[in-house]
Amino acid sequence: AFRVTPQPGVPPEEAGAAVAAESSTGTWTTVWTDGLTSFDRYKGRCYHIEPVPGEADQYICYIAYPLDLFEEGSVTNMFTSIVGNVFGFKALRALRLEDLRIPTAYAKTFQGPPHGIQVERDKLNKYGRPLLGCTIKPKLGLS
Questions:
Q1: 73 and 111 in contact (C-beta within 8 Å)?
Q2: Contacts of 98-106 spanning 24+ positions with Cβ under 8 A
Q3: Per the database record, which ranges form the Ribulose bisphosphate carboxylase large subunit ferrodoxin-like N-terminal domain (predicted)?
Q4: Residue 39: inside a domain, yes or no?
Q5: SS3 117
Q6: Per-10-residue mean pLDDT for the chain, 143 residues long?
Q7: pLDDT value at position 24?
């Protein structure tokens, strides 16, 4: 689920649909591969939108992605698809990933580090929280 703040004049339904498209099959240009596969099979869908209580013009947009969109066993592929480019989308004033639910069958395809999570946590001196990493881009901000 994403917390979405649309630009003025952009309805929340349009913003939610845009996030779903941009984070799955959407692109800003026409590419020759468009005709090779069925977009319906791979596109994300915004299936529910609710206003954030006490916050003007903020909405929680629930988006479902087909598992065929992601490579099995690749956390990197999944996160790159879902949050890779969508944060710079011009139809939005602000966007934040609030919740991510991974089906058990898909989560079981993740093998984890070859020497165990405890070794990774000890190397990083980080405990009691998820370990995630990504390339920091200026447009994402650091807060």
A1: yes
A2: 98/1, 98/2, 98/3, 98/60, 99/1, 100/1, 102/78, 103/67, 106/67, 106/70, 106/72
A3: 1-106
A4: yes
A5: helix
A6: 95 92 68 58 89 96 91 86 78 92 92 83 92 65 55
A7: 80
What is the DSSP code (8-state) at residue 43? Answer: -
pLDDT attached to residue 15 = 93
In a domain, 136, yes or no: no
Domain holding 50: CATH number? 3.30.70.150
The C-alpha atoms of residue 84 and residue 81 are separated, in whole angstroms, by 6
User: Is 106 part of any domain?
Assistant: yes
Q: What is the DSSP letter of 89?
A: -
SS3 content of the chain, % helix, strand, coil (to 5): 35, 15, 50
How many structural domains are present in the chain? 1
